[in-house]
Predict the structure of L-lysine 2,3-aminomutase.
Amino acid sequence: MRDYREISLWKNVTPEEWNDWHWQLSNRITDIEALSEIITLTPEEKKALNDDLLELRMAITPYYATLMDPNDVNCPIRMQAVPTSKERYTAEEDFYDPLAEDRYAPVPGFVHRYPDRGILLVTDQCSMYCRFCTRRRFAGEVDRPKSREEIQAAIDYIERTPVLRDILITGGDPLTMEDENLEWLLMSLRRIPHVEIIRIGTRVPAVMPQRITRSLVSMLRQFHPLWINVHFNHPKEITPYSTRALNMLADAGIPLGNQSVLLRGINDCPYIFKELFHKLLVNRVRPYYIYQCDLSRGISHFRTSVGKGIEIIEFLRGHTTGMAVPTFVVDAPGGGGKIPLMPNYLLAQGERRVVLRNFEGTITVYTEPEDASSHCHGCKEICMRQSMSSGGGVSELLEGSRLQLEPQVLKREERRHQWMEEKKDQSLNTSKPECPFL
Ligand SMILES: *Cc1c(COP(=O)(O)O)cnc(C)c1O
Ligand code: SF4
């Protein structure tokens, strides 16, 4: 981390200004001239910045800029913040909206994909625009929060949808909003009786920690149970500034989680993640997810194999504190949601014995009891409550309430329909329809 006073652009900036998030936000680096006063740009970077074809604008907070290595193009901080012309390449597998968020939005700005929870997109603004952003289709489009009227429509949907017990506020970055606006939003959600927990997803503690002020945390703590998930990708993002921000949030009683994105050339190494997660735990942040990089347009150069993520979990589980091991997920293209992946620990399964391996490669056997059957506990109230918002799927097969799950496109079924059509033609003059299953 560089001292900002050594950078010519900011040599006259006072500590008060530097520590003021409004100053940080309005002094973001958005053009090549300012950027070239901070780092040595390669011809490649200059080219990328010189034309306006970038889908996602550039904006870097002065704070985050001081974490960049001025001379190393492969600096993990720089690679997250400075555009390159690689972003202009669209791979065959790229999508405009890989997670089909727009398709699962019952009202603009609210994605209802899972049975009992949803995400509320309140702004398209971020303090720093991550080059690998999955929401690059709209992040930074107008660079300001939505109007209260727009957000109100989503709040109305939440209000009339009683299964929604968990609301995740995201964007953009919700913490770029002013305190009053956020307070209005949190108050509106807290007023809804079925909203049990509220979550905020934010990258602010990593890219503009000055935003975490005393007045912000004392406002936030009125809305418990409130959870915050932060977004750190590299141990270099843990600084005295971000540490202070995280401690203030934790001291306000807000449980903190972290979501990282697995990024080629930036953090695709188990040791980098181990270091990052150790540092996060020291700051009372529990690693929650590592995301496989999504199939958003123009970010294929940031993607690793899926195997890299599984390998990282292999290097963590058992080797270090269990709380330092997040879940590695692939967010299913097309809107299927997050799919967890991990190394295989189950080697074989017999009638009463499972053969398992541990992180060292030791192979053991666990013998199950003679009678391991479970019975209904007869607690009807819990059953009724929980099954109402149950998500169906494979759990319905286990429950026995469904016999099979079938793909929508099934050749076998197509054949059967054809037979039925043929039969219908033949039996037009008979009055009794035949059972289709015969
Ligand atoms: C990630 C996500 C959630 C929250 O998922 P959790 O696994 O509960 O953290 C909810 N809705 C959408 C659309 C998401 O992408
Ligand atoms: S903070 Fe999140 S939404 Fe904003 S640019 Fe980064 S990844 Fe995208």
User: Anything to note?
Assistant: The chain has a mean pLDDT of 94. The radius of gyration is 26 Å. The first strand starts at residue 110 and ends at 111.
